[in-house]
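Feature request disguised as a bug report, sorry. It would help if multi-protein outputs had a clear separator. Right now it looks like this:
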Amino acid sequence: MKTKILMAALLSGVVMTAGAVTAQPVPENMPERPDFATLDTDSDGTLTMAELEARANARFTDADADADGALTAEELVAQATANAEDRVARMIARLDTNDDGILQMDEMQPRGGARFERMFERMDADKDGVLNEEEFATAQERMQERAGGRHERGHGGGHGSRGKH
C-alpha cells in the first residue's frame, strides 16, 4: 500500500516537472488538484485514508497504459505529456485575450502590474532600480525556500532551480 502511495507521489512529481518545463510561464494554479468533493467519493463530508489511497491508485492505473502493475519511463512520460498538453490548453484559454487560439507576446506579459513592480522593488535591495547578480541570487533562494516549504506541506509549487545548468 505504501508503495502505491509512493509511486503516486513520484508520478505527481514527474508530472509537475514536465509541466514546468513544457508550459512556460508556469500557470499559477498548476498542478490542478481535485477538490474536496471529488476526493470525498462517498459524499459523507469527510476524507478517509481509503478515499485518498483510491485517488492514488486511480492515478497509477491511469498512467499504467499496459496494465502490468508497473510504470515504465515511457508510461510516465506519456502521462506527463498528456497532463502538460491539458495545462497548455487551459493556459491558452486563460491568456488568449484576442480569442485567436494562439498567444502573442503582449498576452504573455506579466499580469501583475503594480504587484510585479512591488516584487521587483523588494528584490532590489539597494534600491538603485536594477538587480545585480547578488540581489537576483538572493531572490531565487527566497523563492526556492518558499517553494520547498509548500512542497514539504504537500502543496506543490516547487519547480527546482530553473535556468541553472
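(second protein starts here, but nothing in the output says so)
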Amino acid sequence: MPDTAMILAAGLGKRMRPITDTLPKPLVPVDGRPMIDYLFDSLEEAGVRRIVVNVHYLADQLVGHISARMGDSVIISDERAELLESGGGVVRALPMLGTEPFYILNADTFWLDRPGGRPHLSSLAEAWDPQRMDMLLTVAAMDNVIGYGGKGDFQMDSENRIARYDGMSRDPFVNMGAAIVSPSIFDHAPAGPFSLNRCYDEAIARGRLFGLHGDGLWLTIGTPEAIGEAEEAMDEFRSERAAGPHP
C-alpha cells in the first residue's frame, strides 16, 4: 500500500467565484468542513505517512490551515512563483514523493465510504498492479457522481483498461480524482506547466491506464451551486447509513 500521497491544491478555482475571490478552493467549506480535510481524513485512515500539497493561489491561507490541521506531517510544494498545472505540479514535487508508487488526489473531489465497507484508498491499493499499470484511476458512473456536469471522461473494457470516452459508448465514466501512479510515468515529462491528461494519454497508448469503480458517495465541487447539492446528498447518505439495512 502506498505510504505517500500528493494533493493537487494549487488551482485558481475560477468557477467557484465569488467564494474563491477571498478563499482558496480547497478551503471552501462543504457541510461545515474545508474540502481538503475530507482528504486528510482518508489519507490518515489509509496510513499514509508522507503527504505533499502544492499551493499557489492565496497560498498563505492554505498553508496556515494545513499547519493547524496536520502540523509538520505535510510537505508544501510551493508554486507561488508559477502555477504548474496538474502534471507539472507533480513533477515539481517528485523529489519529495520518492521513487515508489503514490496516491494523487484532487483537492476539489472527495468521498464518503460506505459503512462496513473497505476504505476506498485501501481498495485502490489492493487493485494496484505495477506489472500491468502505470496509473490506476478511480472512476464512477455519471449518475453516481454529485456535482458533475460533463459528458463523461473515459470508457473501460472488461479488464478495467481505460480509453478516452468516444462520445458514443453507452456507459461513460467520470475521473474522480483519486489515483495511484508510478513515478516512472513522468520520466519523459516536459519542463514547466502541463496537464495530467498528457500522462493519461501516454498510459492509454501503452495499454497501461486502468480504472477502479469508486464505491460510496462521490462528490465533485466545481461551482458554488454544487455545495448545496453535495450537502443534501451527504445528509441523505448519512441517514441511509444510520438506518442500516432493511429487513
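Even a blank line would do. Unrelated, but nice: Helices lie at 35-45, 59-70, 85-97, 120-127, 197-205, 224-243.
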